[in-house]
Every structure is written in C-alpha cells, then in structure tokens.
Amino acid sequence: MAAPLVLALGGSLLSADEGERNAWLSALTELLSACEVPIGIVVGGGRSAREAIELAKSRGENDVAALDEIGIAATRVNATMVSEILRGAGLDVFIGIPTDVESAAQNLESHRIVAMGGTRPGHTTDNVAICLAIEAKATRCVIATNVGHVYSSDPRLDSAALPIESMTLSELQEIVGPPVHGKAGGSAVIDPIGVQAAIDNNLPLAVLDGSQMNRMRDALAGKPFVGTRIEVG
Q: Given 8, 46, 118, 160, which is the most exposed site by the fewest CB atoms within 10 A?
C-alpha cells in the first residue's frame, strides 16, 4: 500500500447537535471513501471528556493520571462511533480500537482505515496522532479541530491574535511552549509534546477547521487548503 496519512479529529467536531453531527459524519464517510491511501484516525474526547473530568474533580479527584484515564475512555467511545459508522458504510475499517500506536500502525498495513482514541496518561490525542504518523511512516498529520488556523497568540485572550497561513515546526514550538503535559481536558491548538515529536522526526503538520469538509479534503490530498501549513524547519 501507499504511505498512509494520519487525521486527528478533535472531539469538538462530534459535539454538535444530532442533525449537524450526522451530516458531518456522512460527509466524512464520503471524503474517506474517496481517499486512495490508508488513513489512521485519532479521535479526541471533546465535551464528553471535559464534562466527565470536571465531574470527577467535583467529587474530589485530583490525580492527573486518573483524570487523564477518564478522558482517554471518552476518546475511545468517540473513536468507536466513528469506526462503526465508517465500517457500516462499507469501508475497509479495522475492527476494534487499538490502545497503542504500534498496533494501529501495524493494522494500517492491511486495512484502509484504523480509528483509535487516546493511549495513556500524559498523551493527548494530538500527541497520539503525531506518534501514529511517525510510527506508520505517514507523509503528514492533519489536525482537524474547531479552529481554522494556528494563531500568533491565543485568540480567546488576545483580540489582536492573527491567523497564520504557513509556518515551520520550530515557529510552532515557540507559540505552544515547551514539551510538557498540560492539565487533563486541556484544549491547546496542538500538544507541545507532539510538536516536539514532529520536530524530532521531520513530520509536516496541518491545522484546519474540521467542520469545513472541503478544507480537510484538500489537506489530505496535498492541495492548498484554508488553514495553517506547518513545514519541517
């Protein structure tokens, strides 16, 4: 088979109301049906993970690893939903949800699609997607989330933040900060530990608004897309 691609789907993309979510999943199925290379999919936890983590905190849980495990469970539920919908549409999807990138990469050698969630505490799904791309020798990792670009600063805090069309991995590291694990349920645009792994392995990245299916289609096809292209350097 040709070298695979890896697609990270932010859990926020599955948090819309039922009608919007079903339409998005149908469009995703159509997009992946047309892909000519294997696709590894890593699905985030989104709102369900954050709500479960906050509930656990309200009940007195403050161990970071334990809170991470709650988030991981939510990601695997979301990954199961995506996997079953794609398989139900007739796509060649590996049955089951791998719990490590090594087995996911191995199954990409014999299936067109493998979907997974989180792996272990301290590893966000962004980081997992980047690690899967490295393990599977993917040509790039596309991170589809609820924001359209990487910004010069956090747009939620800085009204002067500017969207970035193209940048290097080193420039991205300057924005996201040093490679350390943040709080459970955090929502940084890309996990800084994953960014460091991409730097160490010369892995190009892309960040885009995953609700816009045409942007995801273009990025997966290697065409110009609306979002942030992150090159080695």
A: 160
